[in-house]
Amino acid sequence: MTLLEQINSDMKAAMKAKDKAKLQTIRAVKTAFTLEMTKTGSTEIADADALKIVQKLAKQRKDSAATYIEGGRQELADVELVEMGFIEAYLPAQIGDEELTEIIKGFIAKTGASSIKDMGKVIGMASKELAGRADGKTIADKVKSLLLA
After folding, report:
1. 94 closest CA partner among 57, 130, 56, 53
2. Which residues, 6+ apart, have CB-to-CB distance to 146 below 8 Å?
């Protein structure tokens, strides 16, 4: 089942359950998919592209929640965090810190990176390999810390 099919199925289930919050969030995801399909002129969306969109939407919710918390608007932050939870259900399981460290050490060895100047090569390789399983900022921070150590 593709991610788009899963979204459509979950949308129907949320409608039947009369779960307004989940339905609103799933509709936002589907709208993002539809916009991407319109942009490309396609009637389907590849799972890789759909995954990138879902990651982007989850990150937007996370950033919005942080902004609301800074502004003292906890009730708005709570709404964003609930939506983020619904969206993250479509993402693959995130990698743990120890596993990420080991994987990145492997990429550093493969590329022969020895200084911070080689950071781009390692991040590029890691981002492709770990798409959806680790946040780009987390990957970059880990690569930087390992290369500086």
Report:
1. 130
2. 101, 104, 105, 108
pTM score of the predicted model: 0.74
Delineate the domains of the chain, giving CATH numbers in brackets.
Answer: 3-88 (1.10.1510.10), 97-148 (1.10.10.410)
d(CA 84, CA 63): 10
| Nearby residues of 114 by Cβ (< 8 Å), 6 or more positions away | 147
Instruction: Return d(Cα 89, Cα 54) in angstroms, integer.
Output: 10
Which residue from 65, 59, 60 is spatially nearest to 80, judged by alpha carbons? 65
Let me know: does 135 contact 122? Beta carbons within 8 Å: no
Of 147, 144, 104, nearest to 126 (Cα)? 104
Q: What is the pLDDT of residues 82-111, one digit of tens each?
A: 999 999 898 888 888 888 888 888 888 888
